[in-house]
């Protein structure tokens, strides 16, 4: 993945963690999500949301869950302490796909039909 940029590296990492799954990556149309040199792995499809629709973005609901459960009104002693909690918070959804489905499962995502290309 060297030379393909940090965005492609992220997609590659997700793809490698789920090699036997078809990964549906939902993104808004932020400029950095539409990078010209974006390399999309074979087991991944990208769907772009309509403009100004954060309520449709499953990731927004996941971040809300992380903020509520892992970062309540709390003061951290250091940036390292924040990073440690964040690592745990980000690992938690990966260990519980069922919970992620309840948080991010919209009717349109649960009934989405992929077309072969």
Folded structure, characterized:
It is a single chain. With 117 residues, this protein is mainly alpha-helical. The chain has 2 domains: 52 residues, no CATH class; 61 residues, no CATH class. Helix content is 47%, strand content 9%. Helix 2 crosses helix 3. The chain is globular and about 40 Å long. The model has no long low-confidence stretch (mean pLDDT 79).
Please specify the SSE layout and strand pairing:
Blueprint: H1 5-17, E1 23-27, E2 44-48, H2 58-70, H3 79-95, H4 97-104, H5 107-110
Parallel strand pairs: 1-2
Protein traits:
117 residues; mainly alpha; 2 domains; two-stranded parallel ribbon; 5 helices; globular
- Gyration radius over CA: 16 Å
Percentage of residues in DSSP E strands: 5-15%
Please indicate the count of domains.
2
Largest sheet, order of strands side by side? 1-2
Strand-pairing-aware structural class: mainly alpha
Please write the string of helix (H) and strand (E) elements. Answer: HEEHHHH
- Separation, N- and C-terminal Cα atoms: 23 Å
Uncertain segments are: none
Give me the number of helical elements. 5
Overall pLDDT, averaged?
79
Give a short account of the largest sheet. 2 strands, parallel
């Amino acid at each position: 993945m060297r030379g393909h940029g940090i965005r492609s590296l992220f997609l590659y990492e997700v793809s490698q963690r789920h090699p036997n799954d078809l990964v549906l990556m939902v993104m808004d149309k932020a400029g950095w999500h539409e990078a010209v040199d974006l390399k999309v792995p074979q087991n991944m499809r990208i769907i772009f949301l309509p403009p100004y629709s954060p309520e449709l973005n499953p990731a927004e609901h996941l971040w809300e869950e992380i903020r509520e459960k892992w970062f309540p009104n709390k003061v951290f002693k250091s940036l390292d302490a924040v990073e440690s909690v964040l690592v745990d918070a980000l690992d938690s959804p990966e260990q519980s796909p069922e919970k992620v489905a309840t948080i991010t499962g919209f009717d349109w995502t649960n009934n989405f039909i992929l077309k072969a290309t």
